[in-house]
What does this fold into?
Amino acid sequence: MKCRKAHLEDLDIIFKIEQKLFNQPWTKKSIYNELNRSKNTLNLVAEIDEKIIGYFFSHFFEREAHILNLAIDFPYQHKGLGKIFLNKIINKYLKEANVFLEVKRTNFPAINLYLSFGFEEINIRKDYYSDGEDALEMVKKMNSYDLVSS
It folds into this structure.
């Protein structure tokens, strides 16, 4: 799997995947706006044989990142590719940041994925999603090495 920066040329493919995966998908304009932002973003796509199979959108400021969207297309799910993609993202781009996200409380596969990467549950946001479902707020704190005094 190849991981690369997302470009405006990827808009149509990302939008098609978004529509397939989510009951309340992002609009094409929202995706366009994210791809067109020039500051404080990290937008990536995952490719296999030059075909986009997933995408990742986040905002960051200094040592804090907020994951907005992470998705793997249906035919590629349940094969460990989401874990590979997230591992590449964290180890290459986000290892020096505290990483925050929200996930639907009923999205157990995603929650388990995030827990396996060291994310912790920190809050519940009631009625967060447009369908009225609650969000689980999670954080993965950057690795820090404290000095031990003797």
